[in-house]
Amino acid sequence: MDERSDGATGAGQPGAFARAWARAVSGTSYLPMTQAQLEELLQRLTDRLSEALVSEPFDPRVGYQIGAELVEAHVASAEGLGRTVEVVQLRLLRDLGLVAEDVEEDRMARLLASVATGYARALRDRTLDEQESIRRAAMVARAQAERALRESEARFRHQATHDPLTGLPNRTLFTERLAAALDGPGRATDRVGVCFLDLDRFKVVNDSLGHQVGDRLLVSVADRLRLTLGGHLVARLGGDEFVVLVERTTCTDDAVKVAEAALTAVSEPALVDGHELTVSASIGIVERPVAGTSPVDLMRAADSTLHWAKAAGGARWTLFDADRNRQELERWALSAAIPGALERGEFYLDYQPLTSLRDGVVIGAEALVRWRHPEFGELRPDSFIGLAEETGLIVPLGGWVLAEACREAATWSPAGAPAPFVSVNLAVRQVHRPGLVQEVVDVLERTGLPPGRLQLEVTESAMMSAVEEPVRALGVLADLGVRIAIDDFGTGYCNLSYLRDLPVTELKVAGQFVAGLRAPADDPASRTDERILASLVSLAHALELTVTAEGVETEGQAERLRAIGCDTAQGWHFGRPGPAARLLEHPARPA
Hints:
By secondary structure, the chain is α/β, with parallel strands linked by helices. It folds into three domains: 7-133, no CATH class; 171-320, Alpha-Beta Plaits (2-Layer Sandwich), CATH 3.30.70.270; 348-366 and 392-585, Alpha-Beta Barrel (TIM Barrel). Helix content is 52%, strand content 16%. Helix 21 links the parallel strand 15 and strand 16. The longest helix has 55 residues, at 107-161. 34% of the residues are buried.
C-alpha cells in the first residue's frame, strides 16, 4: 500500500513515526516507563503534532505543551530534544502521509520552534522546582538535624546531671545549683540552707535482702522526698546519701522545717518485693548567709554535721555548730601531727608511784605519756590518746611508750630497796595485734628489763573479747613472768567467773569507787562503796590476785582501804606523776 494513499487525515503510518521517535529518545534520559508506555505517550503527541500542522488557524501553543509534556515524561536532556527535533523534521510529514503542499511552508519550522521553546521553559521550570525542592529539603533536613541535636544534647545533659536509679538530680547538677545560689545576681544578701541526709543502717538492707531490694528502697525514698519537698532541689549524691538545697532562707528554722519533713517522709514504711521496710535517716543542717561562704565550705560543714547526727544515734537532725567544728578540726590537726611528733621526739613519760598500803614502799610506777607540743605546750593524755585510738595511731604511739618505759625502768636502782616495776597501758588495738608477744619480748631483750618488772594494763573490754588470740597472747606473756593487770576494774562488763581463767595478776579498781571513801564513814553512799570495795578485794584475794586502788587523794581513803585489805594504792596522796628521778628520790613512804 502507498504510504500517502490515506491523505492528511491519517492515511500514513503515525504508529511507525511514534515508534521511530521512541527509539530516537530512548537512552537519552532516565525514563520511569516501559518502551510500550513510551510509544503510547509519543503516539498521543504525534496525533497532536499532526493536528497542529493542518489546523486553521495555526496555534503554536500546541508545540509549547508538547515540549512541556516531554519534559514531564522525563525526556529531559539536550540530546533528547535534539533527537526529537531531528525525527520530527525528517520523518513526521512522510510517516503521516503528508506532502509539503498540504502544510504551510513555515508551519513545520514554527512548530519545532514552539516545541523547543516549551521544552526549554519546562526544563527551566523543572530545574528551578528541583532546586527549590532541594533547598527546602535541605532546610527541613537542617531543621530536623538541629532539633535532633538539641534533643540529643538535652538527653545527654539529663543523663549527665541526673541519677540513673532514682531520676533525681545528681552531684553535678546540685553543685551547679548551689554555686548559682551563692554567686548569682542579687544573691549577696541572701541566706541559704543545705540538709545533708543519709539513711541509717541501710547496709543491713543490702546485706540481708540484696542490692536489688536496696535499690528499690532507694527509689521509694527518693520518690517520697521529691513529693514532700517538691519546692526544693532534692539530689542524690550517691549510695544512700541525699541532699536538699533550701534557697533564700530567712532563718535557721526554715532549713530545720525541711529536715523534719524529710525525716517524716523517709520514716514511712515502704513495701518492696513483699517486704515491708522502715528506715530512718540522719540529717546534717547548715544554714547561713550567702556572703562569706562557698560550695566547698558549705558541703564540708554539712558533711561534718551529718556525722554528728550519726554519732548521736541517728534518726535525727543536727545543726551545724561553728565552735564544735573548730574543736574537731583542732582534734584532727592534732591527730595528724602525732606521727611527726614521734619522729621529732616530742613525747615523753611521767611516772606515778604505786605504793604498798602495808608498808608505804613504792613497788611500781605507771608510765603516763605526755606531749610537749611546739604550739599548744604540754598536753596530757586525755588530749590526744582518744584521737590516737580512733585513728589507729595508738599502735605506734603505744609501741613507743612500751619501749621507752622499759628502757627507763631498766636503769632504776633505788638505794636500799628493790627496783620497782613499770606499768604500761595497752590499748585495745595493741592487745589485738598478732605480733604483741614478739614485740614485748623484743623490747625486754633490747632494754634488758626482767619480765617480772613489767606490768601491762589492759581494759576489761580487751580481756572480754570474743576473739581468743588476745587472751592467749597475754597468757604467753604471763608465763614469761610479765605482770598482767585489769585497769579500771568495775566500770566495764567483766564476768567475774572469767577471772579464774584469765592470765591476770592484779586488779586496778576504778577511782570512782574510791572517791566515795572521801565522805564520812557513816555516810550511807560511802558505806556502800566501801562494801563494794571490800567484796572486790575479797574476791581478788580468793583468786590470788592483788588489788590496786586508783584515785587515792586523802589519808582517810588510804586508811579505809588499808582496813579492808587493799594491797596497793595510786593517787595524788602518794605522789603526782613526774619524772623517774623524782620517783626514785623517795622510794618509800611511811604507812
